[in-house]
């Protein structure tokens, strides 16, 4: 079982301004809870109790809002990044000592997505020998004509057929040879995919990248109208 997880929460949220001028994007609410609180509840429900959250923009507000995680049934550790953040891979690299002993995979979820994907699947997933990552892909949303990766016989491909959901299981060895600093995840994944070291699956349930005010409002409407198959906490 993958007992540790990282929620990526260091983004500035420029496309959600002016809302995110005073509220970090992961604390934006859908229903009665913030995006990141929904993730915390879901991780607790599937037995993932150790959660690392990185932050750069208004990080003090994230820590103040979530505390040590006890009220969500988890233990939260924070990884503070410099102004501007370290990008996805850089943020994971900095937090790696809190996530893994170097051998154990861990779950990663973007703090600004909202989905009813069942987290028990990633918490129970076992990476086969030599596999560095497992990605959850989704159909390309209306606002995105070209995807990120493809899928063939359970393996991720470099075709741009589907969109990466921001939900994954990663092995710490994926980051071997890299040092902490500003570092994007996309290039690292593409190289691992080219080396046939990344598996994937397609999820066709509810998924929303809450990246703009329009998409945030649509997600809120979908949640309130029960279009999303998850408990209203």
TrEMBL record:
Keywords: Nucleotidyltransferase, Transferase
Residue ranges of coiled coil: none
Domain of life: Bacteria
Sequence ranges assigned to domain Nucleotidyl transferase in this UniProt record: 5-131
Keyword Transferase among record annotations: yes
GO MF annotation: an example: nucleotidyltransferase activity
Pfam short name (any one): NTP_transferase
Record InterPro entries: Mannose-1P_guanyltransferase, MurU, NTP_transferase_dom, Nucleotide-diphossugar_trans
Keyword Nucleotidyltransferase attached: yes
NCBIfam families to which the protein is assigned, alphabetical: NAMPUrTaseMurU
Protein name: Mannose-1-phosphate guanylyltransferase
Organism: Hydrogenovibrio marinus
């Amino acid at each position: 079982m993958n007992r540790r997880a990282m929620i990526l929460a260091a983004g500035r949220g420029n496309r959600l301004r002016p809302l995110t001028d005073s509220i970090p994007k992961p604390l934006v609410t859908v229903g009665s809870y913030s995006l990141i609180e929904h993730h915390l509840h879901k991780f607790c429900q599937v037995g993932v109790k150790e959660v690392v959250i990185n932050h750069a923009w208004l990080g003090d507000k994230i820590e103040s809002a979530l505390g040590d995680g006890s009220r969500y049934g988890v233990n939260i550790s924070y990884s503070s990044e410099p102004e501007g953040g370290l990008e996805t891979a850089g943020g994971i690299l900095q937090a790696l000592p809190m996530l893994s002993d170097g051998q154990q995979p861990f779950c990663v979820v973007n703090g600004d997505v909202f989905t009813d994907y069942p987290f028990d699947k990633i918490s129970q997933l076992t990476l086969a020998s030599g596999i560095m990552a497992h990605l959850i892909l989704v159909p390309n949303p209306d606002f995105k004509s070209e995807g990120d990766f493809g899928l063939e016989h359970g393996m991720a491909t470099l075709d741009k057929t589907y969109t990466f959901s921001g939900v994954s299981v990663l092995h710490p060895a994926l980051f071997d040879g890299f040092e902490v600093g500003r570092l994007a995840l996309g290039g690292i994944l593409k190289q691992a995919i080219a080396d046939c070291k990344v598996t994937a699956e397609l999820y066709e349930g509810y998924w929303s990248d809450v990246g703009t005010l329009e998409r945030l409002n649509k997600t809120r409407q979908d949640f309130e109208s029960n279009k999303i198959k998850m408990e209203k906490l």
